[in-house]
Amino acid sequence: MPFTSRIRKDILKALEEQIIPPLWQQQVSLGYVAPPLRFPSGIETKLLSRRLPLQDKAISGFPIRSTWSKAKLLSTSHAYLSFIYEGKMEERTLITAAQASEHRAEKGVFAVRCQAPAALFFPANTPRNSGTANFINTNSEPRSRAVKILQIAFRDEILVHIHTENEEHVEATHSLLVKDPHLLNLAALFEEKLQSAAPLHQESAQATLLALLLHLRDRLSSHTPQLANTSHPPIPDLKALEGRGQEIYREAIHFIQTHLHEKLSLPFLARKLHISATHLNRLFHRFSGITVMRYVRRQRIEAAKTMLIINQESVKEIALLLNFKSSSAFCSAFRQETGLTPKQFYSQSKE
Length: 351
What we know:
Largest sheet: 8 strands, mixed
Number of helices: 11
């Protein structure tokens, strides 16, 4: 698929030209974003509020584990790496009262600020920004003109994408799915090295991160990765979900969200989940009020909205990327879901 090739080319270029060279020279500031938030030079923390935001109800079984919607924070069940290779940025996290007591630190919401080249590693279940990156923008320091970040989610299928922001807009490429257990092993070793404050371990951590990114480069060069939707799956109301049906429904949502670019059908999804098509449709009717394929179409249209506004892809490109039979089929589905044509939707978003 041409989009996969283009995104892979962009990631490989960033790795070769801006990410791997400073790692070879041991010039990257590394931050382990976890209490007590003590970092080497090049990474700063600032207490933003001692008042802890209200945590939304935790939901197990999803990549998103917890959310703090008012503070625009979330945590995921997997570790996450942000490698800032251009510009300055600010991430946010929090330390709970229990963590503050355990680590003899202050509780509250904190900003973690860094300048390229730098890498922030978020262990599993660590709160971080739920939206875009924040530019450093204070009275004493001018706003960065742009920030570019290579982001890696260390799930069973590793998600890799480049996130770019400037003063006018956000551009987030779609994620590539990379299946490689060696990358997960290297990530675990990198985390182990980062947890130590000893200078020798910091040097070792840089070497381990270099090995990880070299392996990622080689993997992307020699294999064609799959494409995935970068948006987080919507979190449904799970009050009514229980038993095995709950687990199947969660698995189905997660699989659909990460395979919107593939040809999906009810029989195919049922086989993947090892249940009958009738049973799967019945679960979706019960928990979401719509059929499986209506859910698939809705999520494709939600992904299309992002592509229209942020990536400014053409209708033809979106139709191909999201596996619609034709541009006209995409436009028809878009209008049925939104009441607008893609062109009308884009025009209204710019008003």
